[in-house]
Design goal:
The structure is a single chain. By secondary structure, this protein is an all-beta fold. 0% of the residues lie in helices and 52% in strands. Strands 2, 4, 5, 6, 9, 10 and 11 form a 7-stranded mixed beta sheet that branches. A 4-stranded antiparallel beta sheet has the order 1-3-8-7, with no helix packed on it. The termini are far apart. The relative contact order is 0.32.
Length: 112
């Protein structure tokens, strides 16, 4: 069964850090580009970061450049999103994606 399972969300103060993880099951993970999206309340889904199948190419939304880092471990079928210097506007549900495959999302709340 094809599944993407996110974890690592939570409540963090502004300026803090979180690391999101996404475990992939049921497809050839190492052959696919992976993406992180986010959706804030009342907003559309926004592409945050993407990483190529081999991990050699990454791209980021302007709003997170210099603060977020996407990485992957193809041996473990995992993709990660390291989020530093978090801001209130980073509050959203974060989703792992590959093509038409989506995880259930993990909530990130940045608040003092």
């Amino acid at each position: 069964q094809v599944q993407l399972v996110e974890s690592g969300g939570g409540l963090v103060q502004p300026g803090g850090s979180l690391r999101l993880s996404c475990a992939a099951f049921g497809f050839s993970f190492s052959g696919f580009t992976m993406r992180w999206y986010r959706q804030a309340p009342g907003e559309g889904r926004e592409l945050v970061a993407m990483i190529s199948s081999g991990g050699d190419m990454t791209n980021y939304a302007d709003s997170v450049k210099g603060r977020f880092t996407i990485s992957r471990d193809n041996a473990k079928n995992m993709v990660y999103l390291q989020m530093n210097s978090l801001k209130a506007e980073d509050t959203a549900v974060y989703y792992c994606n590959s093509g038409n495959r989506w995880g259930q999302g993990t909530q990130v709340t940045v608040s003092s």
